[in-house]
C-alpha cells in the first residue's frame, strides 16, 4: 500500500477518486508542527535554532499517520506547491521519521501539481522529487522572523500602551498605510470648481433621426488659453462664460477618426483575484481565498496562491477549441495567448488561476457547487480566463475639436465611440456605452441646443478597500500571495481597523496610537522599503542564493539593541479619560479605559476595585423612524462592523448599515440613508435618490 498525505481532508477525498487500488490518501489537517504558542520558541543565542512542537490538537493525527506510514511500502507527500506547502511536507517528514535518522529509511517522495485532476495527479506521481530544502528554509526564515518581531515588539506595546496589543512585520506596515491614508483624508480640503458642457447638433435639424442626435462637448480653453485642472475656480466667470456661449457661433475646427483596440486582462493571480472579487462580488480578501481554496480542493480551479501569468499549453488549446466551437473562429486565437509576468519575483513554476476544464461553463457546473458564493467566484475565474484567450475589442473613436466665437474665443472637445467588434467583452463585459455622433465634416457649423455650467468639488483620497490595499501591498513588494488575506484579517481581529459603510478600512483610535508609537521608535522595522527588501531576501533563500541564518542575524542584532534602549527611555502612554462620576462600589472616580474589545468605563481604583460598565453608545440625536420613542445610536456587530440601531433595542428592532440622515423619503416616508453620492431611501422597493448636498426636506 502506498500512502499519499495531503494537508486537507477535502483535497484527500478529491485525489482519492483519481488513484487506482493500492493507494490510500489521508490528511494532516494542516500544520502538524509549529513554534510553540506559549514561548518564543527560537534560540537566538544558538544561531536561531527553532524549537518545533506537535500541537495537542495534531497529536492524534500524527499518531494515526505514523501507524499508516509503518504499514505502507511507500509514502508520498502531496501538500501544496508553495513555500508553506513545502514546509508542511518537511514537518510531516520529520514528525513521521521518514528521513531515516531514527527508525531506518522509509521510501518517501514529494510530488507537486497545480490542479487536482486525474491527469495532473498521475503525472505528478510519475515525476516525484524530494523535499526542496531551499523553499523550506525560506518559510522557516519567514516564520522565525515574524515570531521575533511579534514576540519581542508585542510585550513592548503591552507595557507602554495597553495589554492585548500585537505587532507584526507585515501587519504593522499594512496598518501604517491605512493610518497614513486616514491622515491624508483628514488633511484634504475640497476645492470647488466649475465645468461647462454644451449640447450641440447639426444645423437645421428637426427630426429624431441619428443625424440629428445632440452630442456633448466640454469647454477646454478660453482665448486659446487652456483651462487648468481641476476647472474654473471663479463662479462669476463660469456664469459669464456660460451666458456668452449661449450667443456664440459654433463650428468644427478639426475631426479625427481612428480605430482603437482594447485588450483583455491576463488571467487572475492571487492579488488580482482578490481585487476583482471585491469590486465585482463584494467579497473580502479572506472570503475570496476561503472559497478559492474550496474550489481548488474540489478540482474546479488551479492552485490559487500564485503571482504568475503562465498557462499550461493544454489549457490554451482547450480554451481555443471551446471558443471556436461556441462563438465561432472570430472569437478564438489559434494557439492561445500567453502573458509575460510583470513581477520579477514571480514563481514561474506556478500557473495563473484558471478553471481546470475550460469547457466547464458556470451553468454546466452550477449544480455541483456547495453554495452561490462558490458558483459566483468560479464564474468570475472562468470568465476572466476565457476572456484572456479571446481577441481584442475594436472601437471606432471620433475626436472633435470645436471652435466657438462669442465675446471671446472658446475651444471645446467632443468624443464619440462605437463598438465594432466586442471580442473578449462578449464574456467579460466592462461598463462601456456607445456614444454615437452624427456624420460631421471639418468646418461644419453647429447649432447649440443647450449649455450648462456644473458645480463640482475635488475628491480627496479614498480609504483603502480590500482591493486597493492588496494592490498597494503587491506594488510595494510587501508580503506574498499567501499573506495578503491573513494580514487583513489580523488587523480586523486585533481591533486596529474597522470597516465603514462602504466596507473600506478606517483605523481605530488604538490602531493609530500603536502606529504612532512604532513609527516614532521602530520606524525601520515597519518601513515599506525595509519590508520589501526583506521579502527579496526571503526570495533569495528560496532560490538557494542565500543562507537563512545570517539574514536573521543581520536583522536581529540592531533590532534587539534598539528594543532594549526603548524599554528604558519610552514612557508609558496614559490612555485613560476622566469622568465626573464616582464609582458606585468604592466611591473613587470613574475613568474611561481601553480594552481588548474597545473602550469601557472602569474604576480608577483598579485592581483593588474591579467595577466596570459599558460605555453608552454614541447617539446621532435622530428620532427612531420605527418607534418614534428612541434615538438612533451607533452599534457594532461581534465582528466590530458598525451599524445603526434604536436606543430602545431589544424592544425596538430598527437597524441599518447605512447612516440615517434624520430625514424621511418624500415618496414613501421611509428613513433616508447616506451614500457616497448623496442619500437614498432605505426602502429597497423605493427608487428615490437625493443629490449630495441637496437633500429633500421632510413633507
Fill in the keyword field for this structure.
699 residues; alpha+beta; Rossmann fold; Topoisomerase I, domain 2; Topoisomerase I, domain 3; 33% helix
Helix content: 25-40%
Into which percentage range does the β-strand content fall? 15-25%
User: Overall mean pLDDT score?
Assistant: 89
CATH architecture group name of the largest domain:
Orthogonal Bundle
Radius of gyration: 31 Å
Tally of individual domains: 6
Strand tally is 29
Number of helices, counting only DSSP H or I runs of 4 residues or more: 17
Arrangement of strands in the largest sheet: 9-10-14-13-12-15
Distance between the termini: 80 Å
How many strands, what sense, and barrel or not for the largest sheet?
Answer: 6 strands, antiparallel, barrel
Structural class: alpha+beta
Report the uncertain regions: 344-348, 691-699
Shape, please?
Answer: globular
Could you name the CATH topology of the largest domain? Topoisomerase I, domain 2
The CATH superfamily of the largest domain is identified as Topoisomerase I, domain 2
CATH level 1 name of the largest domain: Mainly Alpha
Would you mind describing this structure in some detail?
Mean pLDDT is 89; it is low at 344-348 and 691-699. The protein is globular. It has six domains: 2-131, Rossmann fold; 140-188 and 462-569, Topoisomerase I, domain 2 (Orthogonal Bundle); 193-263 and 393-457, Topoisomerase I, domain 3, CATH 2.70.20.10; 270-388, Orthogonal Bundle (Topoisomerase I, domain 4); 577-613, no CATH class; 619-691, no CATH class. Strand 19 (589-595) and strand 20 (598-603) form a beta hairpin. The chain contains 17 helices and 29 strands. The chain has 699 residues and is α+β, with helices and mostly antiparallel strands. Strands 9-10-14-13-12-15 form a six-stranded antiparallel barrel. The relative contact order is 0.10.
